[in-house]
Amino acid sequence: VKRDVQENDEEAVQVKEQSILELGSLLAKTGQAEELGGLLKYVRPFLNSISKAKAARLVRSLLDLFLDMEAATGQEVDLCLECIEWAKSEKRTFLRQALEVGPSSQPYVGAQQLPEFCPSPLPGSQLLRELKKMDDKALLVEVQLLESKTYHALSNLPKARAALTSARTTANAIYCPPKLQAALDMQSGIIHAAEEKDWKTAYSYFYEAFEGNDSIDNPKAITALKYMLLCKIMLNSPEDVQALVSGKLALRYAGRQVQKL
């Protein structure tokens, strides 16, 4: 990671890029949030030696690893904002757009902080207009999902549903990465459970979200599992709760959080 490489040495650049991702993954798995945040800043000079698209993917991957840790270091908001400002100063539009979308959907970002990341994540916003012009459907799905979450937080259920429907429609036209598909399923489950009290449908969505997150070792899998258990409790099906907890998929998540339910 520390070794300098020549821009024209494609193999060396590729090896360094992979090494950075592997180091980031290791830091995330071992709970070294501060070191992972430092790595994000350390690699910036290297980003000039790779394409803007690759640089955007690398930074977003590292930032996602940092945010998925949910380590509550108190640096999350500042680090995200710093990365966005750096992307602006370097005139990296694609990276800036990706960064404006991603952090806003994290669980620790409250409604009062949303404007810091994305001044208006609702229909007609500058970011949404930019993405529609660029025809970047994957990022557009993320923005539409963020719209749904924002409207839901504002207790505007009809618009939350409409934005979610738009997100799922857009997602159906492209290859949707497992992490994004799981996030769509999670939001669908939340709306069916919290607003419509349709526990059976909500359970189906939470199950899909659980499987999707589990397949990529995303820590959000345990959140989906807890929502699945809550749905079974609300359906007055205690026997299903026990079957779920002792099932093959859920065994790896056995612990205090699940036992409390």
Condensed summary:
The protein has three domains: 1-110; 119-176, no CATH class; 179-261.
H-E order: HHHHHHHHHHHHHHH
Task: Estimate what percentage of residues fall within beta strands.
Answer: under 5%
Rg result: 19 Å
- The residue-averaged pLDDT reads 81
- Largest sheet entry: none
Number of domains: 3
InterPro entries: 26S_Proteasome/COP9_Components (IPR050871), Rpn6_N (IPR040773)
Pfam family, one: RPN6_N
Organism: Malurus elegans (Red-winged fairywren)
Protein name: PSD11 ATPase
What does this entry look like structurally?
With 261 residues, the protein is an all-alpha fold. It has 3 domains: 1-110; 119-176, no CATH class; 179-261. It has 15 helices and no strands. Helix 1 runs antiparallel to helix 2, helix 5 runs antiparallel to helix 6 and helix 9 packs parallel to helix 11. The radius of gyration is 19 Å and the shape is globular. Residues 104-121 have low confidence and may be disordered. It holds the Pfam family RPN6_N. Residues 4-99 form the 26S proteasome regulatory subunit Rpn6 N-terminal domain. This is PSD11 ATPase.
Structure characteristics:
globular, 26S_Proteasome/COP9_Components, 15 helices, mainly alpha, PSD11 ATPase, 0% strand, 261 residues, Rpn6_N
Give the helix/strand layout.
Layout: H1 10-29, H2 33-42, H3 44-47, H4 52-68, H5 76-89, H6 93-101, H7 114-117, H8 126-134, H9 137-153, H10 157-172, H11 178-195, H12 199-215, H13 221-234, H14 238-245, H15 256-260
